[in-house]
Amino acid sequence: MKDKYDCLKLDNQLCFPLYACSKGIVSAYKPYLDKIGLTYTQYIAMMVLWEDEEISFKQMCGRLLLDSGTLTPVVKVLESKGLLTRNRSKEDERTLTVTITDKGRALKDEALGIPAKMAQCSKLDPADAAELYRILRKMMENL
Amino acid sequence: MKDKYDCLKLDNQLCFPLYACSKGIVSAYKPYLDKIGLTYTQYIAMMVLWEDEEISFKQMCGRLLLDSGTLTPVVKVLESKGLLTRNRSKEDERTLTVTITDKGRALKDEALGIPAKMAQCSKLDPADAAELYRILRKMMENL
DNA sequence: TACAATTAGACTGTACACAATTAAATTGCG
DNA sequence: CGCAATTTAATTGTGTACAGTCTAATTGTA
Questions:
Q1: Which of A10, A50, A138 sits opposite B44 (nearest CB)?
Q2: Is A142 in the same domain as A130?
Q3: Which of A76, A120, B48, B132 has the smallest CB count inside 10 Å?
């Protein structure tokens, strides 16, 4: 019944459900994020600024685990929406400082209901959610 | 210590580690997939054909949870690499039948070592890996 | 102090990923 | 039978995502 190719079956992969769930969750966010006019990537970028209102672009890349090629256009779009400003640092002209605006800060309150809505939609019981969180955190450290 | 905005912190999200691990695993595959000349998306598409050597395009989309806009170019690239053929069904001209070639079948043996290499790289103990798999599967059904 | 090495962002090219639309083929119903 | 509704891929447009490259600014060192 078992053959040497079993390890190549989609159903036996750990990576595929991970990849599918990641896309699934991001798309589940869409209706809620549409209401506040953000994409998922823009949302997590704003999340960084909701926590630290001023941060260097480089640090932002590190927190989000995104490279400059991805984050540069995202931050420019957020700037064009008036949610943040981009300025070169006085001490080091290479460094780009990203700062939240009043409008960006105001959006925080609009986003407040989203995490609860998302928790419902995954339909995981709290124990599974906690386990998942624990294992994914461990995995992140190894990658 | 706790404020109402805690739920909007990146560290308190379940989605973000999921999204980060998904990207992390896919990028961990890269060196191994480079050796056989496939991207991750191309790899999972070939996985479907390694299991079912002939399948309709529509079914393939369903198995991979990808829509036609994503999979059409992927399958065309795999065709150009000579790993599969694309043919319209005789019974229903709308249906595209995707069939593995000898070259595609041969690639299966080259890919055989990859899953084991990936299991090492995630560095999860078997118990955690099994738990993760179980929870992600449950989540997939709910999404 | 010159100048090599490093660092920070931006840019280019390739590859997804999905929503929305389109076109062709087929089906179903009056 | 005739035509509206449905189905299947393909296409278009927007938005990531990352490798590789480039430029400008800064740092380290002889």
A1: A10
A2: yes
A3: A120
Q: What is the pLDDT of residue B17?
A: 96
Q: Are residues B138 and B78 in the same domain?
A: no
Tens-place pLDDT, residues A87-143 = 999 989 999 999 999 999 999 999 999 998 888 877 888 899 999 999 999 999 888
Residue-wise pLDDT tens digits, B81-111: 999 999 998 889 899 999 999 999 999 999 9
Q: Work out how many CB contacts closer than 8 A connect A with B.
A: 181
CB atoms within 10 A of CB A119: 15
Which nucleotides of chain C does any protein CB come within 7 A of?
Answer: 7-13, 15-20, 24-27
Position B98, amino acid: V
Task: Give the CATH number, domain containing residue B56.
Answer: 1.10.10.10
CA of B96, C1' of C25: distance in angstroms: 12
A72, A115, B14 from B10: Cα distances, Å:
19, 11, 9
Mean pLDDT computed over A24-35 = 95
| φ/ψ (deg, to 5) at A9 | -80, 140
